[in-house]
Design a protein that fits this description.
By secondary structure, this protein is an alpha+beta fold. The chain has one domain. Helices cover 25% and strands 38% of the residues. It is built from three helices and ten strands. Strands 1-9-8-5-6 form a five-stranded mixed β-sheet. Strands 2, 3, 4, 7 and 10 form a five-stranded mixed β-sheet that branches. The longest helix is centred in the first third of the chain and has 20 residues. It is globular, with a radius of gyration of 17 Å.
Length: 168
């Protein structure tokens, strides 16, 4: 393959990647899509925090995503991993009734195949809020024990809520 053909092939893949990453998530209900870019996110009724629990090896290392939602405002929540190139999707949390707090423990290797994580909060008025992340946020800390991870997630949720102007 000559240099010009190779350059066009690379350029076309870059353009396709740009489109795949900027297209909004398709939610079952009309609503809005928000890009989460840090290891925590909070707005009225929703708070999220990320942490990594190191295992003995990469296969046993888990990424934990703590989800806190106000059931009166968002009665259902679901989560999925998505491949932005093929749009293939893997369910991480089937649509379920919100019970306030849920932890998703996801193998770190999952993010190689499904780097986009979508959290879909279905509101009482029918509108959905989709909070998505591209990969595990760079600011996500790693912990050697479950207790340290749990403490951190609680503290990070509290700080995110405070920065958002109150608790969800």
């Amino acid at each position: 393959m000559n240099g010009i053909a190779w350059g066009w092939r690379i350029l076309s893949r870059i353009v396709a990647l740009g489109w795949a990453l900027t297209l909004p998530a398709v939610a079952a209900d009309a609503g809005r899509t928000v890009h989460g870019s840090s290891d925590a996110y909070a707005e009225a009724g929703i708070a999220l925090a990320w942490g990594v629990r190191r295992g003995a090896d990469e296969a046993t290392t888990r990424v934990t995503l703590r989800i806190v939602a106000d059931p009166a405002r968002y009665p259902r929540v679901e989560a999925a991993g998505r491949d932005p190139f093929t749009q293939a999707e893997r369910v991480l949390l089937a649509p379920t009734a919100t019970r306030g707090l849920a932890d998703l423990a996801i193998p770190r290797a999952h993010f190689a195949d499904f780097p986009r994580t979508e959290l879909r909060f279905h509101g009482t008025g029918g509108a959905a809020v989709v909070v998505y992340f591209l990969g595990v946020p760079d600011t996500t800390p790693e912990f050697a024990s479950d207790a340290a991870l749990d403490r951190y997630l609680d503290e990070r949720i509290a700080r995110a809520r405070s920065a958002a102007g109150g608790k969800p």
